[in-house]
Design a protein that fits this description.
With 132 residues, the chain is an alpha+beta fold. It is 40% helix and 14% strand.
Length: 132
């Protein structure tokens, strides 16, 4: 019986296939490594977010803050008119009354003024409430 002719095998050199295989393996490695680094970075950011939230949710931020930027010194001989003093007192949230003033209130008496300052803690010592 006659033999079938054998087809000649394609000659490909092993060198021509290897670089393509290396590129695919290398690309897969860098893709997986990149995704792993991205996941680790996301976990790290989540941890930092947890730390920041834990620090700012404490009770330290619950206290109201006050800024006393309009310090006014009253002393005998100060060059301040009655109207200017009334303006400053209203800016400082003092209440105008027609009776004997309590702490944080004032009343007008003709050309003069009666003022009751509230108690407060000054930089070096506490100050008691007083009528001026």
């Amino acid at each position: 019986m006659p033999r079938k002719p054998v087809k000649a095998a394609r000659k490909t050199s092993p060198r021509s296939r290897r670089p393509a295989a290396r590129v695919r393996r290398g690309g897969r490695f860098f893709t997986i490594a990149g995704l792993l680094l991205l996941a680790l970075f996301a976990i790290y950011l989540g941890y930092l977010n947890y730390l920041i939230n834990a620090r700012f949710e404490g009770g330290a931020w619950a206290l109201p803050s006050r800024v006393y930027a309009r310090a006014l010194e009253l002393y005998p001989g100060a060059t301040l008119t009655r109207d200017e003093l009334v303006y400053e007192l209203e800016l400082s949230s003092y209440l105008r009354v027609d009776r004997q003033p309590l702490a944080g209130e004032y009343r007008l008496l003709g050309a003069s003024l009666e003022l009751h300052s509230p108690a407060f803690v000054f930089t070096d010592q506490p100050q008691a409430a007083r009528l001026v």
